[in-house]
Design goal:
It comes from Thermus composti. Its cofactor is Zn(2+). Keywords: Metal-binding, Oxidoreductase, Zinc. Pfam families: ADH_N, ADH_zinc_N. By secondary structure, the chain is α/β, with parallel strands linked by helices. The chain has two domains: about 220 residues, Alpha-Beta Complex (Quinone Oxidoreductase, Chain A, domain 1), CATH 3.90.180; about 130 residues, NAD(P)-binding Rossmann-like Domain (Rossmann fold, 3-Layer(aba) Sandwich). Strands 3, 5, 6, 9, 10, 17 and 18 form a seven-stranded mixed beta sheet that branches.
Length: about 375
């Protein structure tokens, strides 16, 4: 099969032929239809998040079941499926408590070592040398995924575009769940890339108003309004605009979806007294954002970190929301690249040139 390999930090992604992986017990081999282009992969490419190389990136995929490992039930070959970037082991301390977004083995094995839960990778070069896996290593024609993280895709949803359900929209649902968002609450979304646009859509679906989109790029604000934002401001306009919409108080919930100190602080500054700020953007390792302690204490502000949703609880909900049209899965996907163009896709993402979400399509 073809796979886009990152040889080392700062290296371009290069497509090479590698053996098709084989699923082990409790795993599924997915023939990948498409893989989303996410900023978290870009952090690895740039060395801002530590990860072993050489590796295969890509962590939000859609495709069809190619083979089932021993013991897998409830799926069949040829079935259309999606997978989230968090791959719960199902047995660790957090998974058995229903907190799959904190899965110990996912972080200890996959995110730190690039392997699955028997301690080995499923990807190798022709000479037998290992290729490490970022989640399932979705920038390839086939990927092995734990069965705990493979979900049938409802009829009527487009297969390629559905890839973004695995991270952009999955992360957005986790953020909205973490916030405890209720109908009628006011929301600000700082940074409207793929995840931010997902939060805009879900906030609208949950009955929030106003839903305020904040971004530097006019075309991103236009996209946010098309997907449900009631108002849109640049960062310079945000303070005055939000106060005018909320009788001077600020919003009930502010989401930050970029992972930069300035956007973190901006989101916090937009809260009303007693409001909640949910940061979801990943920053380079070691980056901090200062918080005014006295305001945090006196005004009862809450900062609620959110990495993603809980796969087995939340992915079925997400799929249902997409199926009934509460989420515009296809509308959020704005660009498609071939696997050979994967490096170009991430370079364009790094330059801020992608509006919405891009996907790498394997069959093109």
């Amino acid at each position: 099969m073809r796979a886009a390999v990152l040889e080392g930090v700062g290296s371009p992604l290069r497509v090479e032929e590698v053996p098709i992986p084989e699923p082990k017990a409790g795993e599924v081999l997915v023939k990948v239809a498409a893989c989303g282009v996410c900023h978290t992969d870009l952090h690895v490419i740039k060395g801002e998040v530590a990860f072993p190389t050489p590796c295969v990136l890509g962590h939000e995929i859609s495709g069809t079941v190619a083979a089932l490992g021993p013991g897998v039930e409830g799926l069949k070959e040829g079935q259309r499926v999606v997978a989230s970037f968090i791959m719960p082991c199902g047995t660790c301390y957090y998974c058995v408590r229903g907190e799959e977004d904190l899965c110990e083995r996912f972080f200890a094995f996959n995110r730190l070592k690039g392997v699955l839960y028997d301690g080995t990778t499923r990807l190798f070069r022709k000479d037998g040398s290992p290729l490490w896996m970022y989640s399932m290593g979705g920038l390839a024609e086939y990927a092995v995924v734990p069965a705990t993280d493979v979900f049938p895709l409802p009829e009527g949803l487009p297969l390629e575009e559905a890839a973004i359900l695995g991270c952009a929209l999955f992360t957005a649902l986790g953020a909205v769940r973490t916030a405890g968002l209720e109908g009628g609450e006011s929301v600000a979304v700082v940074a409207t890339g793929g995840v931010g646009l997902g939060i805009v859509q879900l906030a609208r679906a949950f009955g929030a108003y106003p839903v305020v989109a904040i971004d530097l790029r006019p075309e991103k604000l236009q996209k946010a309004k098309a997907l449900g934002a009631s108002h849109a401001f640049t960062p310079e306009e945000a303070q005055e605009g939000v106060r005018a919409l909320t009788e001077g108080r600020g919003v009930d919930v502010a989401f930050e979806a970029l992972g930069r100190p300035e956007t973190f602080r901006l989101a916090l500054s937009l809260l009303r007294d007693g409001g909640r700020m949910v940061p979801v953007g990943i920053a380079p390792s070691g980056v901090e954002a200062g918080v005014e302690i006295t305001r945090l204490v006196r005004r009862k502000l809450k900062i609620l970190g959110s990495y993603g949703a809980k796969p087995r609880r939340d992915m079925p909900t997400l799929l249902k929301l997409a199926q009934v049209g509460s989420l515009g899965v296809g509308a959020e996907v704005t660009e498609r690249f071939t696997l050979e163009e994967a490096d170009l896709a991430y370079r364009r993402l790094d330059r801020g040139e992608i509006v919405g979400r891009a996907v790498v399509v394997m069959g093109r």
